[in-house]
Write a structure and sequence with these properties.
- This protein is mainly beta.
- Helices cover 0% and strands 47% of the residues.
- It is built from no helices and 10 strands.
- The strands form 2 sheets. A 6-stranded mixed sheet has the order 2-10-9-4-5-6, with no helix packed on it.
- The chain starts with a strand and ends with a strand.
- The relative contact order is 0.33.
Length: 111
């Protein structure tokens, strides 16, 4: 089973930026569709963005134009660049290979 480890979360002011990383074990990382989800307190986990092995990207409407998902198959890592952050982006962010989940990384947007 692939292990996923997220990093890069933290506290940032509104309008700021963060880059999340998700490192995956396993030799066939490039074949997986990788995704980012988030879960705010008291809310259900929601999909944020996905990227196919060939680099096709998709985003939920609320982050389009602000977030960018990317991957480095040589490093078995997927990234989420988050710009123009808003308080409503505050959540625990999880990466997934559509099979398992990482442990999550907290993102807090507050002044």
């Amino acid at each position: 089973q692939v292990q996923l480890v997220e990093s890069g979360g933290g506290l940032v002011q509104p309008g700021g930026s963060l880059r999340l990383s998700c490192a995956a074990s396993g030799s066939i990382f490039s074949m997986y569709v990788m995704g980012w989800y988030r879960q705010a307190p008291g809310k259900q986990r929601e999909w944020v963005a996905s990227i196919t092995g060939s680099g096709l990207k998709s985003y939920t409407d609320s982050v389009k134009g602000r977030f960018t998902i990317s991957r480095d198959n040589a490093k078995n890592t997927v990234y989420l660049q988050m710009n123009s952050l808003k308080p409503e982006d505050t959540a625990v962010y999880y990466c997934t290979d559509q099979i398992g989940w990482g442990q999550g990384t907290q993102v807090t947007v507050s002044s």
